[in-house]
Amino acid sequence: MMFPERFSNLPEYAFPRLRSLLDVHAPGGEVMHMTIGEPRHAMPPFVGEVLAENIAGFAKYPNNNGTDELLDAIAGWLKRRFGVTVDPVTDIMALNGTREGLMNACIALCPETKNGKQPVVLTPNPFYQVYAVAATTIGAEPVFVPATRETGFLPDYAGLPSEVLDRTAIAYICSPSNPQGAIASRDYLRDLIFLAEKHDFKVFSDECYSEIYRDEVPVSALEVAREMGADPERVVIFHSLSKRSNLPGLRSGFVASGPENMLRIRRLRSYAGAPLPGPIQAVSARVWADEDHVIASHKLYVEKFDMADEVFAGIQGAEAPQAGFFLWLPVTDGEEAAMKLWTETGIRVLPGAYLSREVNGENPGKHYIRVALVAPKEETQRGLIQLRDCLYG
């Protein structure tokens, strides 16, 4: 029996890999999960009520692109949050979470060749793993660009050779970045869009953590592109209610871009995608229109950032990030640190190497662990103190 080879070189996904590493050993204390970015702040209080009011919608096929109410709510949020005016009919599509969009937009928009050669898809390294799988799926060459402390934890795409940039069809960027929590400034995004215009590629901007930050308010690549007067098809943005509104199980997000990009993305969805169920769309419309719950959650994250800074005071490189809800903590070896924490304290964290690829013998995540600040404050503080005393004491 024949099987495809295109995915044969994929490493095991991060969390099965972590289970293989840790689960053969007994925990050294009460188990505390600080691995997965699953928000545990309160969801908006009206979610159940809106879902119940629209429960009959499960008996109908849902709108493929998003109901008018949902698309209008998303367009309204983009206007309030980023000052960007988009046409909800032509420029937005609802998503079953951004992973779907980040994957399928690459399939829909990446050409078979670029300047007569195999196309390149640029991805930061470390990165959200779907970026690389999307590139592999459409036969592009994924190029992993280090996003390290030396580069401000954002990829230096401008430093790539011209022959790579001339083959580039898509460049993924995540801001605030996962796992490091760096924010791409207006200048960074402007330079990236200029680079994309010079070498004729699209920027896929994953902005799922845009509402979790300390002082600097993250901007959107779409916002910067509009300010520059760039081609409206140059930038594709992705957002989700998972992090913004503490609703990871809702699987609700959106993609927005120029009308030609969106036409192609929607066309693919009509053949191969699964639209959001009607009741979920009704809940999502209400959630995008509400900011009170976002403000309350944001306040809790800022308190956790401050708490983390207190716990790790004096430990170089262990300060809380600009944004997002992960600590990206320096260690000698991520796997060894994760094993030590598990067997001595019962705390589970993710080795940074599981989020990165080795390039030229270097894995930029090898000397880090990712720690999620998603639990209630008291639990988070207890875990961070145990972690500090175990690894840095």
UniProtKB/TrEMBL annotation:
UniProt keyword Ligase, yes or no: no
One Pfam family it belongs to: Aminotran_1_2
Name of protein: Aspartate aminotransferase
Needed co-factor(s): pyridoxal 5'-phosphate
GO molecular function per UniProt: pyridoxal phosphate binding; transaminase activity
Keywords from the named record: Aminotransferase, Transferase
Domain Aminotransferase class I/classII large: 30-373
Segments crossing the lipid bilayer: none
InterPro entries named among the record's database cross-references: Aminotransferase_I/II_large, LL-DAP_aminotransferase, PyrdxlP-dep_Trfase, PyrdxlP-dep_Trfase_major, PyrdxlP-dep_Trfase_small
Gene3D superfamilies xref list: Aspartate Aminotransferase, domain 1, Type I PLP-dependent aspartate aminotransferase-like (Major domain)
Organism field: Celeribacter ethanolicus
